[in-house]
Design a protein that fits this description.
about 170 residues, Ubiquitin-like (UB roll), 4 helices, 8 strands
Length: about 170
């Protein structure tokens, strides 16, 4: 299962209207295993996008059951989707709600992408809420093969030669 972290990044940005610098704080979503890894990924990733100094001002776990990214979406929407489930012990129907993050160009596009993401079967779920999220972008874990390779290497135990300084 994915562990997602919402990192708030504070930095100086030039205001497009006035041309003056102003301090902004923007939220980015990172797929990571730990808070430390999320902070490291935020620093490494944001260096490519932000010139000048920036700081990771907060990190918190984000609870999304699913993320539906798309190249044509310019905003992220937080959606509440409910499913009907039957409790096996009691036999009663139970409604389960999940948060879904969707990249879309508008609310109608967002709903269409949820339906498509759920294989077009609208009988099994209901979209209860759609609201624009403050998240600017999402950085999945498996963006680059190198990143995955680095992560696998860091998880394996060190060999005797590596501990002795030999490679």
């Amino acid at each position: 299962m994915q562990t997602l972290f919402e990192c708030k990044i504070s930095y100086q940005k030039i205001d497009e209207k006035t041309g003056l610098e102003k301090k902004v704080t923007e939220a980015y979503l990172f797929d990571a295993l730990t808070y430390t890894e999320a902070e490291e990924r935020a620093h490494r990733t944001m260096r490519e996008y932000i010139s000048g100094e920036f700081a990771v001002s907060s990190i918190r776990k984000a609870k999304f059951a699913e993320i539906l990214p798309s190249d044509d979406g310019d905003r992220w929407y937080r959606c509440k989707v409910s499913f009907l489930s039957v409790d096996e012990k009691s036999g009663r129907e139970k409604r389960i709600s999940n948060a879904v993050l969707v990249s879309a160009s508008g609310i109608k596009d967002c709903c269409d992408k949820i339906v498509k993401g759920m294989n077009g079967n609208t009988d099994d779920f209901e979209i209860n809420q759609v609201m624009e999220s403050s998240i600017v972008d999402f950085f999945p874990l498996f963006d680059k093969d190198e990143e995955l390779k680095d992560r696998e290497i860091s998880r394996r135990p060190a060999t005797e030669d590596e501990l002795a300084g030999k490679e």
